[in-house]
Queue: 4 jobs
Job 1
Amino acid sequence: MSVQTTVQATFAATLVDEWVRAGVRDAVVCPGSRSTPLALALSERDELAVHVRLDERGAAFFAVGCSLASGAPTVVCTTSGTAAAELHAGVVEAHHAGVPLIVCTADRPPELHGVGAPQTIEQHNLYAAAVGWSAEPGLADPAGAAGWRSLAARSVIEARFGGPGPGPVHLNLAFGDPLVGSAGALPPGRAAGAPWHDVRPARPVPAPADLAAAIDRWRGRRGLLVVGADGGSPDHVYGLAEALGWPVLADPRSGCRLSHPAVVAAADAILRDPAVRAALAPEVVVLLGAPWASKVLGSFVAETARRGAAVVAVERWGRWFDPDRVVGEQWPVDPDAWLSGARQAALERDGQPAADWEKHWRAAEDAAQRAIDAALDTESSARAGALSEPAVGRRLLELVPPDAVVLASSSMPVRDLEWFAPALSAPPRVVANRGANGIDGVCSTARGLATGSAPVVALVGDLAFLHDVSALVTPVGARPDSCTIVVVDNGGGGIFNFLPQAASLSGSRFEALFGTPQQPDVGDVARGFGLSVLDAPTEDALGAALAESIGRATLSVVRVPVPGRIDNVAVHARIEAAVATAVRSAIDT
Ligand SMILES: Cc1ncc(C[n+]2csc(CCOP(=O)(O)OP(=O)(O)O)c2C)c(N)n1
Ligand SMILES: [Mg+2]
């Protein structure tokens, strides 16, 4: 069958050509008619991996995972109407997390708006403040062909740097009938496959004089480096820590929770005790990168700020991470440049670190780690080896090979890793959808991450798993992904049992509104999608299940049945008490 050459097929092929030139490697396409010109153009390029997903909500989160794996913007292509609206949650997450996406929604031509044409809704400004840039070029017109390459190249630049950091952009593309067509000659591009526009982004670096002045204020004082995601590379973080004699409180997502004398992994557990908080209070806190999930750490920083400590934030894109309004000084600069400049300034100056400061934190960390181990051993013996939720957080990163990526869902899984994972010599990369902290789309993001070369292990709650069950739908013929979803099954939302609602409501009201246990069995659901499911109630079983599933070119589910949410609160309380006793005695408080 011969297919007519159409202007809009040529337009779509030009966009795709320009995206390929600008480094786009993945496209997520959802089935639909109105988006046909773009879907066809995307599928025609071997340079692109085209992932077809049925559910648009999951597709946006899948695209977030693709971009986290590749570092490049991912194109998303949907039809019009509610399909476009379904993307919104993933777009919001990408916006807050700084993940580059090029979201393309197909639309009907302007004359079919407001007249009852099917699947036609207002898509103008659909994602509002969640996109840093958007464009609606209208129906493709040969008279505008000179601008097509510019439009696509700009969308990539805006997705990479426009917000001012990375984030989603939106192209609302009107397509008319006939939707099937073949591309004619594309408008000429730049020589040697270069994109139409390229950008050499300014990477703000701190002025040496400003850093020297800061170091003059801080040298010899009791300081902490609190490092979260994208807060600097380990060598730079440790370099400054050593020069100043400051401990490093490292979130697993920072990549800095490594075996190093400055590293404190158990900050959340250590800082739960008021006497310990007072004894370990700093005079300066430098927050590097994205914040931790820990409320305990956040309130500790706020409390010390109220007592006069200086709080300093270093964030690559100048994003405003300061819910307690305590940051006195912002450095919107490259964290590594800041860290190495600050180290240089520190080395050029005389002065001794604050006496016993690092030693006290080291003692606290060692005591806390031993106390957590002992408490978890006791828990394990009391339940014949069955895993508790904190034990999963403590062990998981050791059971996963260093070349894998671990994605943790909100709410308890990401906290279990943050609170209980020890410093390791070679842990896997840890990521989480912490832009908007949703429990939605986590399995989809995991599958998107699995389009990269690293095997993926997702640690998710049972509700997060059931919320995103459409992620288990795989199209016939899709390329295999290596993704293991570990479901910590505590029969509902574990986080809520820690909140005042749990104590102030009747059990049945609390369960109905907050705990929300669900009818389907996690294993049965996964098996219903044709997946292999392994049950892992003990550490040995979890290790064996992970060894069996990680790296296999398939999606598998490991279910970790844990004792229950009320029991989990009690386990946390026992660990907290054991750590407080151990740390108090270690630092003589
Ligand atoms: C999209 C979305 N809806 C609702 C919430 C509120 N919420 C936070 S935690 C949670 C329960 C999560 O339960 P589960 O996934 O089983 O993890 P657990 O805390 O039990 O480990 C809910 C519903 C949210 N964060 N995001
Ligand atoms: Mg749960």
Note: The mean pLDDT is 97.
Job 2
Amino acid sequence: MPLIAVAALVYAAALLAGLGGVLVPGVGLSAAAALWGAWAGRAAPAALAVLALAGVVSGASAARRTAVCGERLALARELTLLLEDDARPGVVVPARVRSGRCAARALVAVVEGRGAGGDVVVARGLFVPGARGGFVRHARLGARTGGVPLVALRTAARRAIDRAFGADAPLARALLIADTRTLPPELRDRFADAGLVHMLSISGLHVAIVAGAIQLVCLAARAPRRAAAVAAVAATAVYVAVIGAPAPAVRSGAMLAMAAAAQLAQRPTSPWAPVAVGAIVPMALDPATVRDLGFQLSVVGVAGLVASGALARRLLAPRWSGWRLTVGRELLASVVAAVVSLPLVAWSFGRVSLVAPVANLAAGPLVAVLQPTLFLALLLAPLPPLARFVAGAAHPLLAAFDLAARLAAAVPFAALHVAPTLAAAWLCGALSAALVLACVARHPGRPLVAGAAAVAALAWLPSLPTGSGTAELHMIDVGQGDALAVRTPRGRWLLFDAGGGWRTGDAGRATVVPYIRRRGGDVAAFVLSHPHLDHVGGAASVLRALRPAAYWDAAFAGGGDAYRASLALADTLGVPWRRVHPGDTLAADGVVVRFLAPDSVWTAALRDPNEASTVALVRFGAVRFLLVGDAERGEEGWLLRHAARELRADVLKVGHHGSRTSSSPAFLAAVRPRLALVSAGLGNSYGHPDAGVLAALAAAGADVVRSDVVGSAVVRTDGHAITLELNGLEWPLAPASVPASGASPPAPPRR
Ligand SMILES: [Zn+2]
């Protein structure tokens, strides 16, 4: 491996350390290494150590800049927002926030005004700085003051895709503009099992395919080689810009441009040089890129491809030729790429796909035809009938792509469901780096020893204690349904509901189990709010995989099949079943759960399970979370009559996915939440959450966080202060009773 690739790796690790606040040890270590290299007369290690020093300092100063700007933005009376998606009251949209010379990424909770993606607007609102960005509370958008054409273009592309592709739009959005928000969870689930999930997020691969197709078309039209290469690079630049320049696409674009330049100058380079340049360019432009999963996956994937090429030249080329060599090379490439990206995939998707090499072999050629077709449909967007025609032609290809995933996922033992902890994922990362080195090194002995050391450390890891020292409430994004998880200071879990189920799977297996396993720790209790499928659908998977110490449930007569199956399974597994009564408590590591409802006298006369929802008040120190399942106004009335004094809570899991059947004014007045969590599926057919409920929550002074808009959310508390984490952005929750008028001066920032 040439020095430049090692340099990219060292720089990335140093940036991560600097961003993570490991400044003093990082600087000390790399300075010592640089001095030693200079003293011993070793130029290469000395240069790498200097690079590491630069990385640590650059990461730390980026983190410091973010912190200082966060405080300035928090004090600003008016903010300039560049909206990155269409904004309307009740949604949380990503945006870039500016005030004076400071800028930050943020999520904006809009309570008034509208704007289109790409618009620049002046807004009133409270910027709350966080560790990696911020949040704008109660944003009232003013008139449009300008626009950024590229962001507007991306939003327009999103709308054009929706118009042209109809039912295929979610998949087309993912493949074309890296927007995976509308993908149904079951589709994501089968692509993950099949080992094809990386094809759903925009990667260098898609960009390379589009560039290759353009080059082919130019060559077929008898254009000179040079002109074809230039045209491909230019078209790629436009494509990367239109899709919003995500890190993997920028990396791929930089690589292609460099390869084309080398070809034009007739200067062959090592294949590692473009990989390294493609990795370094986005990191140099924005140090925070190094934390982006798409960026990490695509760099690791390409590094795997280059390593497999070296291995194929050494192992296969001397023995095989013709079609056997081609197939062998492809299979080897997909195996090595799958193995080296395994820690990242296991970390983010909770599984290791065993059918991945074969599935990739089948899906690869399909994507090679599909991607240019989709791109053509997007190009033709200004001519809707033509765009629809091409989109129609892409339909069978999209169906075949999905079928490949379906078939591969249906193979027995297609995927192992795993969930590494952060430390385990780091060790696996070291293992895969060692494997890449072993593939390309002339003497693979040393890397293999390092790999063996990582395996040994992995075997020893489970004996370490886990735990965060704070209590957390996780709203796990399971689409339409509920799955709330409370994590105790010692890392144990209390799980409330398990998400929905569908014919071929369920949210428990697809989402909840990997989510919990990845973070480690036992499940001390599983609590079911009520036996509707969007809450109990994943229960059997949760019971089987996580073996909770107890199963709490209100025992409403007349639940469906999934409910009965979960009870039977709990019995088989020996998980004790407990019936919830008002006043029962459940305690774990300082977290106390008190059940407020349902009362058996109340439920006896009911026909609707929603109104018999288990209502739980979760307390840690002075902080209170209220989880109400799908309780509607009837049960809220019962609570107001029987437990009014206990309802006040800092965080409310809003009843019935934000439906207007719940959250009556009297109930909200009794709870007075500072934060309202709404768990609902994007574009669900029930119209959840209701606009009136959202307005009532905002008027009551609560920040509204919707899983359909922002995905999973984590509320963290030490028993006094509360922080909220969304999409990797974390910030403190403002103190109670912020006036809804937004007229008062903002609160001073808090660290
Ligand atoms: Zn429900």
Note: The domain at 471-732 is CATH 3.60.15.10 (Metallo-beta-lactamase; Chain A).
Job 3
Amino acid sequence: MTIENRIETIAEFLSGVGVAHAFGICGSGPSLTLIGALDKRGITYINASHEASAAMMAGAATRVSGVPALSISIKGPGLVNAVAGISYNHFEDTPSISFSESYGPDSPAWRMHKRIDQFGLLSPIVKRYCSISEFVDNPREIMSETFAETPGPLHIDLFEGKSKGSQDRIKESKHLPSSLSSAISRIGAAVRPLVILGSVTKRVRLEVEIASLKLPILTTAAARGVLSENSPFAAGIFTGDGKEHSPEVHLLSACDLVIAIGVRTSEITGQNFGGRPILRFDYIKSTHVRDFPKPIEHDISCSLNGLKEVFSALESLEWGNDLACELRLGLLEYLNLDQWLPAQCFKVIDDLKLPHALALDTGSFCTIGEHIWRANRDRILIGSNNGRFMGGSIPSSIGMAIAAPGIPVYCAVGDGGIQAYPAELKLIMALKLPICILFMSDGQYGSIACAAPDGSSMSSLMIKMPSWYRVAEAMGMNSARCENGTSFRETIDSWDRKSPLFIECIFDRSAYLVMTKGLR
Ligand SMILES: Cc1ncc(C[n+]2csc(CCOP(=O)(O)OP(=O)(O)O)c2C)c(N)n1
């Protein structure tokens, strides 16, 4: 079988399982052949400006649609560029599929042009690596493996023959021998248990069980949306890093037991569980690091039915009826919504009564957005929730808008993140995507500056020429510059939610610098 035949077979398979989009930068070899084979079957190929952003777009499209989207690159430099995006998908546990051209194991060692150890580069970040011939032999099994808990990227190198195989991501560590029944009886002895949910609860569909709880619930950023955050029990985000004004810190001190369900250390940024005893439950079929902060009383891996038993045990407990609401009101008061800062902007977005997505890049504005904006089934949070990967929000918004047409996307990005893939603004414009860029500018890396030790080089944190709205305008986007809440609200209200919009929000640097104090 020739590589062209294998590409045809794989394109047929991918179209059969519903793949609809591919993103990338091609070469003149098998990557171009693959794009042609996909095109023949109605799989849309989108030219990105960078291989990393292409992989991020594929990741977001995969997460939103539940069907893998593809990214494509040439070998060597193309793949090296793509590594940032593939690792983005690795951090976010996303089973997107990347393809790249490649030398095969039989190509002579003197052929060095664009040659690099692609397996070596990829093995720590992909769940499965294979050659196209291995994929052709077993496509269904390989794909379902990458979707299985814990999901992760699949990479296929376009060469004939056997690959070096995949590296196991499971790093099993010792955990306490515990039985589900004794952990469940421990739940019964608690008076004020606090539930913290990780993203696997969303993937294995425990929404109904979660909605029936009558006790305070926090979620990791990646799990947002697993319960409607209008619920009186939804207390917001858990990071393990909260400070005195964050709901998590109040709840940790008010509770007498922490019940962490599917909470993985890759989904949190700190390890503060308030010193409360922890019962940890996770889904048995998962491949993640099991080490966990102490003190942990029970650490159980169980089946979906086992997790449902945990929720049944929790159903009989009730406390904290008004606590989550009180904490939210207290938080809004602390954030002072009268002041022109990102909190005002996120409140405007949170007040919208329409399905939408919010992409949060990383930075101080993200901390504010995560606390103010509430997710639910119709309000999707996208972006780098786990990896906190600066620059991913614009590519993620594009992937989201393409995979879920008609849903407006609000993309909050700072001075740092916007610099990563600004050329993709052109793609937003070319495809007329319903994306509203909320550019939150304080002219510096605010989140780094606010935590920088005395004597740090402040010039390394400043952004020269921070403004972008004229650039967006020159690309054909409707653009606005807002310096107060009224103009921001008016601009948001006037958006048709069909064509791109760029809003540059200019904030006072010194007020911005301290706005997350007391939160994280
Ligand atoms: C790829 C990547 N590089 C660097 C960082 C470290 N980092 C985290 S936040 C940040 C600054 C973000 O600045 P900006 O976008 O201006 O947002 P602000 O903090 O001012 O709100 C940096 C450099 C990161 N998280 N990801």
Note: The chain has a mean pLDDT of 94.
Job 4
Amino acid sequence: MRKFFLPSLCNNCDNPICLTNCPVKATWKREDGIVVVDPHRCIGCKYCMASCPYDVRSINPLKRIVQKCEFCRHRVDAGIEPACVETCLGRARIFGNMLDPKSEIAQLLATLPTQVIKPDLGTFPQVFYIEGDLDAMNPMKGWKGEE
Ligand code: SF4
Ligand code: SF4
């Protein structure tokens, strides 16, 4: 049996299928690529939850609206890194502008083998796993108890 830890967060996909079914346009992609939810527009219908192939959206039980990782957009807008990046003790998370060739993230993507989850779906996830094992990263395979 293999055991591993895999952070599972919204991939802020470049082709985010989750937003196509939102009946009130409460979710959309910003110019910088972050996929966001407007809590004032969301009616909690969960259509986006059913659409997301990564199961990373959840309903806030008190507010009855959908929430997900938005890369801490309030921090990004203030010019600081997402909280998980800043607080990760292992420095395992790197965040930045992939379009800037001088950025650490762009240089890592250019020099190291990386993988995304479910690459065949055409969603173009923007979360990459360095030396990711595609089989191990498939939650359904893990759930079935593969060796
Ligand atoms: S991971 Fe799911 S919720 Fe996040 S952008 Fe992609 S399709 Fe949407
Ligand atoms: S739960 Fe909210 S964000 Fe999701 S599809 Fe419904 S209205 Fe849109």
Note: The chain is about 20% helix and 10% strand.
